[in-house]
């Protein structure tokens, strides 16, 4: 028996509640309870190789858990399991699927402390934000529990007569879901919940940097009553070895990916060969526009939320602060003061607002963007480099005056760095905001309601937050244009990504045929 099988013997497939009556979680016990293998066909099983990988705490550099690494054979076994139950799952009454999701919502909510602790341990975000993600991630389960029973079709007589048509929604079929490390729970539930609502089976591949939240979530879904084979989870050190054979397999019907634009493009090219349905939630380069008539206090509150949520590691993160020249000094001073009031540290510690970046590579990338900005005219008003500690900490930083040729204007920062630029009129700022290949989130601060519609018309972004610094919600159609992706997650639209419309034409009995 392998060391993993030995370890697993003591585990049930169910996630246990470990918080005591004060809500405190015994982290060692929680980590020890997690499975270390792969979840295929309703069972945790060993990977087919002896390869393993470590999951690290980015705040301390310590290894949290060692997991087994899946290879191509394991990925195909996971697809086999998904294919086997697809037909039965599609025929499961909508009400049953809905109730599984609703139970999962209750269970995840009950286990807020366990989920939040795991996320802080493996991803680094402060505990308060991790609790926020549990709420946000769980809302997808509740939202799609409600949407499951509201999948409508149309009925119509064609204009010429002769045929009556009915449309209906059918599940796309087995899906490959690939998720990133920055929102370990919400990015998974945003895909899994609509797939369950639509009646699709799945192979989920979480990010190898943060798989623990997903593993705990799988245990929760089992307890909520999800039948074996509907959700299968494989994770490993070579993500392409998992995704490539599945994308090439004609039994797979869809790939839904959240991650970088570079990887999204690779997957889209692979998917082209099988004309596979794709949903792509990719990178962003959000403008945060502040007009001269904005309420500056509100704009600063929104700026801090849009920039610093998730340590700046969000696809919606404000990347370019475009501020009207007449208020740029005041806005920048207040932004610097707000950034300097933050506490950097281990997200498990009380009072910490800014955790570590996910890994050393990420910290080096943020530092390189700051250096390049300095070479291109930026002044560092606060921060500017690594912060003290064993983890991958970076100081909250404000830059001003970088040129629009600098890398920091063009690339996703993914860290706690705000870069301020100036503009003088509306047309100029719309052009500046759109001068990027990305088109996910954008933010506009102004007290002029007419401006809202002009900006919404002019901005080439899937999301516009008007006097709102937080735009994510289970009820909204989240997604981007241009190189930020294809498709929408959440909202009434989210389920469309997992359904095919079938049209049935029936001969009209009164027609002369
Ligand atoms: P990433 O592209 O490196 O990884 C995302 C996932 O893809 C991970 O599970 C990874 O293992 C897998 N992967 C990596 N290379 C692969 C390959 N060659 N073939 C198959 N799978 C592969 O992205 P990341 O660093 O984990 O996440 C950060 C990125 O995600 C940022 O660009 C961010 O903007 C984006 N993101 C977008 C959204 C959105 O909704 N648009 C949400 C969150 C994050």
From TrEMBL:
Catalytic residues in the record: 281
Region (Disordered): 1-21
Record PROSITE patterns: ALDEHYDE_DEHYDR_GLU (PS00687)
CDD domains listed in its UniProt record: ALDH_F5_SSADH_GabD
Aldehyde dehydrogenase domain boundaries: 44-503
Matching InterPro entries: Ald_DH/histidinol_DH (IPR016161), Ald_DH_C (IPR016163), Ald_DH_CS_GLU (IPR029510), Ald_DH_N (IPR016162), Aldehyde_DH_dom (IPR015590), Aldehyde_DH_Superfamily (IPR050740)
PANTHER family to which the protein is assigned, alphabetical: SUCCINATE-SEMIALDEHYDE DEHYDROGENASE, MITOCHONDRIAL (PTHR43353:SF5)
Name of protein: Succinate-semialdehyde dehydrogenase
Species this protein is from: Corynebacterium genitalium ATCC 33030
